[in-house]
Amino acid sequence: MESSKIDRDALKAKLQVEFEATLNAVADSVDNARDGVWIEDSEGISRQVLDRFRQQVYEATMQAKIDAAEAAFSPSEEHDGSSRSE
Description:
It contains 2 helices and no strands. The two termini are 19 Å apart. The chain has one domain. Helix 1 packs antiparallel against helix 2 (38-72). 69% of the residues lie in helices and 0% in strands. It is rod-shaped. By secondary structure, the chain is mainly α. The longest helix is centred in the middle third of the chain and has 35 residues, at 38-72.
């Protein structure tokens, strides 16, 4: 039996707001860095923001897989795909 697939369009839509917030936070950290120390001033903040986004993407993807599997599950079917009443 093949497992259910993730609805990637729904996942993208769900994560769009987080993506834009992450991009803005990274850009802000670079824009607000002092001249001559852009990397020093922005790298730590950028890493934290990107790590949080990575975690959000992975958690949302795992939840989407769980949701897809639950939606495809039929409690009346046996493991071989046949119904109990057959």
